[in-house]
Q: What sequence folds into this?
């Protein structure tokens, strides 16, 4: 991977008492990208994001944000990242305007003017009590609060989970406006890939606390192929790359293959492009996390 | 952070202020009655004692003003615990309970500083409030203190530095409990329990021994060696040689004095007995106040430092 890296993890692991929620995670998210962290519930997404934010201490390994590894809990390090936690926690007893004042008081370069304009556009008044806002409005306020921090890395944990379809659309619109304007890197998680597919240019598939797949979205699509052919000649297909998933059909086998460079030469095999969702599902279903983990680090 | 602290805790501060104001008002009203009764009788008598002594006047005054109210004052010892539970425990506890710790600790204020600033500001506020109340209380009880001294729990615990220092400790314990337990209600319960666990032994066993007591011995019939404001830890009789009598021997002597008839002191004097007492002299009041306040303040600081370390090392 070339270019500056916004978030890098090395051998990252987190153990709660006796259970490893995350282990051996090596990631590098390029600066300026919109990275989607996808995985089923309990995959370790929140743990990974909270480790990235310094809200959790890693049991092993390390996290670096824009190359700065040391002292994650300092004003300088905290200024570099913006965070919207799962369920977008806010001080419900405050009014919206007071929440902005809180932002100004606890940040170095909080852009209150920007936040006010954004909230005005969303028809959320400064005098409104936060606890009286709808779930969608609260999510918007939390996002605006994080954006107004003017952080270089924005981390959103399941930002869309509690929102209705209309609120999701509005939320993503505000977010994408910001991405288009500035040089902010976004890392957002979801257990539904479809939500993020349109906006993400980088993808991380997490399952069972390990990275199954990570890389540039276009590259992932370009390197994966569905191939169909006779079961007897499976080894020929494997020569063209690594088999991610195999599906027995009535006549022959359908394989998802990750190309190792060379094309599949065997005449009996027919290749077709694979969709991103199919690829992700295949990696999530793949049995051994060890194999898939290696696949992940290859791309990263 | 000043505004953030104010906005988060202004309700609690208002409640504390209201409580102190109400209690002060009651003390002022009661105090005005007591002070006027004091200057009408006992004060003048003590300045220029009447022929029969002042004991009649003083006993009457004491009987009138040390009734049920004095017994109620004992409950005021829970005030520091309540302030610790309602102001200290939610400081970090509520952030964890409501999930807003993820908001608070991802702004640009490092969480160690966040806790330090908030805790110091709130500690200053509760110390100032309780110190103010202590001043009102000391004024209120001045007449009774002149009679009984200031070492009794109803004086010592609420006058001088004791109340602010205890409150500071309870507050620190509350902050630590909130940072450790991460649930407000559990932290509040732990705060009250922890406070009592320190406070009760401090008062019962440590306070009398903060300084070695002075021993006073006087022959029977002589002028009393123990002053009005002195704190008597223990007392008894001495024999002719000056040695202390055991409890058994003492009750035997007193029984004999009763059987002999006549004033008890006369009997004791004629048989060579005397009195001994272990006391903390009234003049040691401030010395004791400062020692105890220093202990509580150190405990409070230890709690706050521990809370900051807990928050920094184990954010979750």
A:
């Amino acid at each position: 991977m070339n270019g500056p890296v916004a978030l890098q993890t090395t051998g990252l692991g987190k153990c709660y008492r006796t259970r490893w929620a995350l282990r051996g995670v090596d990631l590098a998210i390029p600066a300026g990208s919109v990275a989607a962290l996808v995985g089923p519930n309990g995959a370790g997404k929140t743990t990974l994001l909270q480790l990235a934010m310094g809200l959790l201490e890693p049991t092993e390994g390390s996290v670096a944000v824009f190359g700065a590894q040391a002292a994650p809990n300092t004003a300088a390090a905290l200024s570099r990242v913006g965070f919207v936690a799962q369920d977008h926690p806010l001080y419900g007893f405050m009014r919206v305007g007071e929440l902005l004042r809180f932002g100004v008081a606890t940040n170095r370069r909080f852009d209150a003017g920007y936040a006010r304009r954004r909230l005005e556009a969303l028809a959320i008044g400064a005098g409104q009590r936060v606890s009286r806002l709808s779930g969608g409005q609260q999510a918007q306020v939390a996002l605006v609060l994080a954006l107004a921090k003017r952080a270089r890395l924005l981390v959103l944990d399941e930002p869309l989970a509690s929102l209705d379809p209309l609120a999701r659309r509005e939320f993503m619109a505000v977010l994408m406006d910001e991405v288009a304007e500035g040089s902010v890197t976004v890392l957002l998680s979801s257990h539904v890939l479809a939500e993020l597919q349109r906006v993400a240019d980088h993808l991380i598939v997490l399952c069972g606390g390990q990275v199954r797949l990570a890389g540039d979205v276009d590259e992932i699509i370009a390197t994966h192929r569905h191939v169909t052919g006779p079961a007897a000649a499976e080894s020929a297909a494997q020569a063209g790359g690594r088999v991610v998933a195999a599906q027995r059909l009535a006549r022959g086998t359908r394989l998802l293959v990750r190309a190792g460079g060379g094309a599949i030469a065997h005449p009996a095999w027919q290749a077709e492009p694979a969709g991103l969702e199919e690829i992700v599902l295949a990696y999530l279903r793949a049995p051994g996390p060890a194999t898939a983990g290696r696949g992940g680090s290859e791309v990263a | 952070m000043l505004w953030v602290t104010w906005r988060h805790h202004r309700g609690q501060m208002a409640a504390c202020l209201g409580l102190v104001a109400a209690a002060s008002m009651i003390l002022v009203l009661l105090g005005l009655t007591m002070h006027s009764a004091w200057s009408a009788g006992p004060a003048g008598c003590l300045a220029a004692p009447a022929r029969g002594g002042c004991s009649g006047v003083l006993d009457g005054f004491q009987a009138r003003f040390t009734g049920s109210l004095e017994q109620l004052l004992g409950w005021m010892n829970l005030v520091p615990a309540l302030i610790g539970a309602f102001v200290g425990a939610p400081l970090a506890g509520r952030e964890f309970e409501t999930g807003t710790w993820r908001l608070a600790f991802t702004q640009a204020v490092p969480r160690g500083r966040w806790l330090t600033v908030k805790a110091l500001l709130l500690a200053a506020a509760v110390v100032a409030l309780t110190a103010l109340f202590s001043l009102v209380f000391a004024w209120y009880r001045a007449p009774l203190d002149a009679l009984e001294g200031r070492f009794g729990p109803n004086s010592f615990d609420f006058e001088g530095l004791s109340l602010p220092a205890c409150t500071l400790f309870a507050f620190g314990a509350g902050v630590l409990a909130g940072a450790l337990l991460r649930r407000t209600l559990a932290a509040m319960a732990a705060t009250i329990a922890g406070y009592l666990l320190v406070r009760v032994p401090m008062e019962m066993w440590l306070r009398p021994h903060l300084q070695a007591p002075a021993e006073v011995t006087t022959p029977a019939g002589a002028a009393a060696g123990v002053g009005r404001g002195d704190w008597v830890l223990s007392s008894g009789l001495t024999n002719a040689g000056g040695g202390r009598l055991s409890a058994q021997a003492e009750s035997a002597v007193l029984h004999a004095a009763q059987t002999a008839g006549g004033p008890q002191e006369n009997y004791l004097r004629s048989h060579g007995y005397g009195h001994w007492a272990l006391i903390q002299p009234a003049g040691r009041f401030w010395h004791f106040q400062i020692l105890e306040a220093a202990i509580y303040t150190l405990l409070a600081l230890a709690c706050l430092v521990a809370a900051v370390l807990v928050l920094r090392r184990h954010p979750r």
